[in-house]
Design goal:
By secondary structure, the chain is of the alpha+beta class. The protein has four domains: about 70 residues; about 140 residues, Beta-Lactamase; about 100 residues, Beta-Lactamase; about 220 residues, Histidine kinase-like ATPase, C-terminal domain (Heat Shock Protein 90). It is built from twelve helices and 22 strands. The strands form five sheets. Strands 6-5-9-8-7-10 form a six-stranded mixed beta sheet. A five-stranded antiparallel beta sheet has the order 12-11-15-14-13. Helix 9 packs across helix 11. The longest helix has about 90 residues. It is elongated. About 5% of the residues have low confidence.
Length: about 675
């Protein structure tokens, strides 16, 4: 059997005759004074040869002389003390502790303080034992606060008693009563000699001294009682008198008579108070009688109220019957409603739900009354709480389409629950409508629409690229026709045909320009086509052979990524325009175009860098606009870079330009690879 009981080590009496006491890792949290007190109580509770089990960091130094070490490592000790003597350490009160220092000391300061306290106690014990003197500190009620010296020679061995008069032999108690009374009144020292008491079957003479004890920063009246044999010298300042038992008995009698007189005066005042209390009680009884009469009349009124309540109960029973019928109608409506519905009050507590709601939310009848936030759901709806609060606060409706974890779609409508009397929201109704089939149809339509938009974008890009690429050969034709027009020895019969060719070329250029202006790139262009960049650059160099030869340009490749998923014609148009611009807008040096590719996270980066004339910073935003030209003296229409940006943005990429005058231009293109 194990008995569990609440026990205060410091305040409650100790247990007795224990075979085993375990007190582990508790005393390390107590002050040294309190530890000493608890150790003495533990020693008192142990039976002879009983065992004490302490924690690894605890040492029973105050009682180690009464213990045998059984296991030093595990702190197991055996009690060697057969007879329990009174130890006032167990009853010392912390009244003399200086409370000025409220700060927490450091470990070193605490260790130093503990050592000084133990050293002072050891010095006092040794000095008083050598002088054969017992010094006892008591309060004004004769209760022992602390003692120094051996108590067995001068005091009666009574446990659980801290009153000094009860612990002193009769002659000492009589003398102490007289001296302590005078010392408290006059605040002076008093001493008497030669008090004869019995100790171990022989009589000894004891000197008794009582002195006021002054403690700094304490308002409590304390006395210091000194007991020693007649051979010990007395205090110099004490009033020395030889003990006369008759004188002290007379004085003891006078003190008792004075106490008796004071008690009689207190008793008389108590009688007067009791008489006043009796008069008050009599008036209270009269008030109670009148209250009883009022209660009687109230009972008669309650009887009439009960009759009225019977009538009201009959009306309520009729109303309850009607309410049951309404509840039946409501329950049948819930049962027939395949769409789920939740009823929530203003505190967001679930009030009612329809059977169809169980498909979306894990609900049980026991969930009614629980907060809606504590109920798990199968839907990805994180804003349900905010929507309910919004509807309750502002009214109106909130409609959202939510996907469940199993792939179904529901239209969730949150509306206010209105009170009929006030027309104000007192809750919310959440309705779940299954729109899975409608949502799937909508998704299919969106996919088809997206494919159509891509086809349309491809057509637009094709028109733009084609119209732009045709302008190059067309320019060559115009140049050739111009040369032929300046030749004088042409057959006159050919002039008619030259005029026709000139008109056709002008119309062709106008048509291409109109097509390039009208075409817009609006949608994604995604393709699984893998483009070989080396092959594409070879193709562009072949197309620009004349320009490269004329300018002695150099094309440098540094391709960490050789292949890229992109629309081939669009990538060719990008490279063609950037390389041709690097040659066309050359500076004083021979053109050098550096093409580089590398991977940055999920993107492929393409850079085209030249050493040409460069672009002023204020003109950088202009180059990507339709017909946005910086240098009008060089051939071109200002459409190439506009088309490049459209193509890249359609493919969800980005293009950035960096340039300074006379330091060339760098185009950086990022293309996301899926």
């Amino acid at each position: 059997m194990v008995i569990f009981a609440l026990h205060d080590l410091v305040k409650n009496p100790p247990y007795c005759n224990m075979h085993f006491i375990s007190c582990r890792n508790l005393l390390i949290y107590m002050s040294p004074t309190l530890q000493k007190k608890v150790f003495i109580l533990l020693l008192f509770g142990l039976k002879m040869e009983g065992y004490l089990f302490l924690g690894s960091s605890e040492n029973p130094l105050p009682i180690i002389q009464n213990l045998k070490v059984v296991d030093k490592k595990w702190k197991i000790f055996k009690n060697l003390e057969a007879k329990r003597l009174v130890r006032f350490d167990a009853f010392s009160l912390p009244v003399l502790i200086d409370k000025k220092n409220n700060h927490l000391p450091s470990l070193r300061e605490e260790a130093s303080t503990n050592m000084q306290t133990n050293l002072a106690d050891a010095v006092n014990e040794t000095l008083l034992n050598n002088l054969n003197v017992l010094v006892i500190c008591i309060d004004e009620n004769n209760h022992v606060v602390k003692f120094y010296g051996d108590t067995t020679k001068f005091l009666l061995q009574k446990n659980f008693n801290s009153n000094l008069i009860d612990l002193l032999p009769r002659p000492l108690a009589v003398a102490f009563n007289a001296l302590s009374t005078k010392s408290l009144k006059t605040n002076k020292n008093y001493t008497t000699k030669g008090i004869i008491v019995k100790h171990k079957l022989k009589k000894i003479k004891i000197n008794l001294s009582v002195s006021p004890l002054i403690v700094k920063n304490s308002n409590q009246k304390l006395l210091m009682v000194t007991l020693c044999e007649d051979k010990v010298p007395m205090q110099i300042n004490a009033e020395n008198t030889t003990y006369d038992e008759k004188i002290y008995l007379d004085e003891y009698t006078l003190n008792i008579e004075e106490e008796n007189k004071n008690l009689k005066e207190k008793l008389n005042s108590t009688y007067l108070q009791l008489d006043a209390s009796n008069e008050n009680m009599q008036s209270f009884n009269e008030e109670l009688l009148s209250a009883n009469e009022e209660m009687q009349s109230t009972n008669e009124e309650m009887q009439s109220v009960n009759e009225e309540l019977h009538t009201l109960n009959a009306d309520y029973q009729l109303k309850n019957k009607e309410l049951l019928e309404v509840n039946d109608d409501l329950n049948n409506y819930f049962r027939s409603n395949i769409n789920g519905q939740l009823f929530v009050n203003k505190d967001l507590l679930l009030m009612k739900f329809s059977p169809g709601t169980v498909k979306q939310i894990n609900l049980l009848p026991s969930d009614i009354g629980r907060p809606i936030s504590n109920i798990s759901t199968n839907i990805k709806f994180e804003t349900i709480i905010d929507d309910i609060k919004n509807v309750i606060k502002n009214g109106g409706f909130v409609t959202k389409e939510i996907e469940t974890e199993n792939g179904k779609w529901y239209q969730i409508m949150t509306m206010p629950y209105l009170q009929q009397s006030t027309k104000s929201p007192i809750g919310a109704i959440i309705t779940f409508n299954d729109i899975t089939e409608l949502k799937n149809t909508q998704i299919d339509l969106d996919k088809k629409n997206e494919r159509l938009l891509r086809i349309n974008a491809d057509l637009d890009n094709f028109v733009n690229v084609t119209s732009h690429d045709l302008l190059g050969p067309l320019g060559n034709i115009e140049l050739s026709i111009g040369v032929m027009n300046r030749v004088n020895n042409i057959d006159p019969k050919l002039n008619k045909y030259l005029d026709i060719i000139n008109d056709s070329v002008k119309k062709f250029r106008s048509l291409i320009t109109d097509i390039a202006t009208i075409a817009k790139v609006e949608n994604d262009i995604k393709s699984d086509q893998v483009v070989d960049l080396n092959e594409l650059i070879d193709n562009v160099e072949w197309s620009l052979t004349d320009k490269i030869s004329a300018s002695k340009a150099t094309i440098i490749r540094n391709l960490e990524v050789g292949e890229i998923k992109f629309y081939r014609k669009n990538m060719r148009s990008i490279l063609y325009n950037l390389i041709s611009n690097g040659i066309k807008f050359r500076g004083t040096e021979i053109p050098i175009v550096n093409i580089k590719t590398y991977i940055d996270k999920d993107n492929i980066v393409l850079t085209v860098k030249d050493n040409g004339k460069g672009i002023p910073k204020k003109e950088l935003n202009k180059i990507f606009k339709m017909y946005g030209r910086v240098d009008n003296e060089i051939e071109g229409h200002g459409v190439g870079l506009y088309l490049i940006k459209k193509i890249i943005e359609t493919a969800k990429g980005s293009i950035v330009v960096e340039s300074e005058p006379d330091n060339g231009t760098t185009f950086t293109i990022q293309i996301k690879q899926e």
